Structure formats: C-alpha cells, structure tokens
Amino acid sequence: TQDKMDADLEFFHSINVSPEICCFNAGHEWTEGFRKSVGQFLRRTR
C-alpha cells in the first residue's frame, strides 16, 4: 500500500539509504518491464 511504501521510505532515509522505486502493474507476473529493471539492477551490483 502507499502507506507501507511511505513508511519504508521514511525508514530508509533515516539510515541514509536512497532506494530506487520501481512500480509495475503486473501482480506476480514477470513482465518485460520488470525483467528489464531487474537486469539493470543486477548489472549495477556486479
């Protein structure tokens, strides 16, 4: 929910972490957009 995301963001900012937010309207499906975002994340973490 939006309230949960806001609380999570507040926590991350309190510990000096800047998360990247990605929202997908896909339920439990791995859409092309989701796969692309995951791939970009994994390339950055190597």
From TrEMBL:
Q: What is this protein called?
A: Uncharacterized protein
Which organism is the protein's source? Answer: marine metagenome
